[in-house]
Write a structure and sequence with these properties.
single chain, 77 residues, alpha+beta, YefM-like fold, 2 helices, 22% helix, rod-shaped
Length: 77
Amino acid sequence: MKAVNVHKAKTHFSRLLAKVENNREAIVICRNGVPVADLVPHKRVGRITPHPVLSKIKIKYDLTEPASDDEWPRRYR
């Protein structure tokens, strides 16, 4: 992990972003030698994994079963 002071980070921000983007390299931004922030690659969330709350929902009927006439609203019959 590379450490960069605030002035250099401001001056060369585009170059630092390119390093993070291309090399997946994390950079620590320091003020007076003290770490202030981390510039890290973005982690994409997988769209295949369901949200934890959704796993608690249980459907207790067959979704492919056709609806009977009395289950449809009158205006759509």
